Amino acid sequence: MTESLPAVFGTGLGLAAGAGLNAYAVLLVYGGIVRLFPKEFPGAIGALLSSDAALVTLGILFLLEFFADKIPGLDHVWDVIHSVIRPLSGAVLAIAAVGPQNDSVLLDIVAGGSGGFVAMLSHLLKSAARMTSTALTAGVANIALSIAEDILAFLQALVAIFLPIVALIVVLGLGAIFLLTVPKIARSGVHLFGRIRPEKGSPPPTG
């Protein structure tokens, strides 16, 4: 099946955006869809992700993430560990979507780089939202937030595969949200840290 360049990039970057939330969920969805429709999704990466061993492994990893991401404290450690895994997964998924539809090494490189970048943006938004939730609710709302992220990851994967242009629009919106929110959150954190940290040479607080 030959698709337009915007469509294949919509699929690739849409999958990458979902991978930034939950890489194993998106890899599992993509591998499962390729397993069902192998002729529609050619390529070595798709064949690997749709193998029995890969699907079983991804299923186990998804279950681990599902529970680990809902334990306060451990969820932040999990996010730090996946600061590399999620962008890497986004890059692989973007190449899997774009690569079989063209014979250009340059496009594969662009797909991998942009997929990793989009997954990192999504991951940073997820981490910022989780840190804000922890600060405001002492982690009480993190379980509900994690479930919402899991659902969004699955939905984003399906939209990326079946509605690639819509997925591309979502990715553009993701970039806009990142530019509007994350710098403000970072500045707020710096200001808060500055207020909490005592100035050099100032007397210790009295009890």
Could you please describe the fold and organization of this structure?
The protein has 207 residues and is mainly α. Helix 1 packs antiparallel against helix 7 and helix 2 (23-36) packs parallel to helix 7 (142-162). It has eight helices and no strands. The relative contact order is 0.18. The model is unreliable at 195-199 (pLDDT under 50). 79% of the residues lie in helices and 0% in strands. It is globular, with a radius of gyration of 19 Å.
Quaternary structure state of the chains depicted: single chain
Gyration radius (Cα, Å) is 19 Å
| Separation, N- and C-terminal Cα atoms | 72 Å
Task: Please summarize the sheet with the most strands.
Answer: none
Helix and strand run? HHHHHHHH
What is the helix tally?
8
Strand content: under 5%
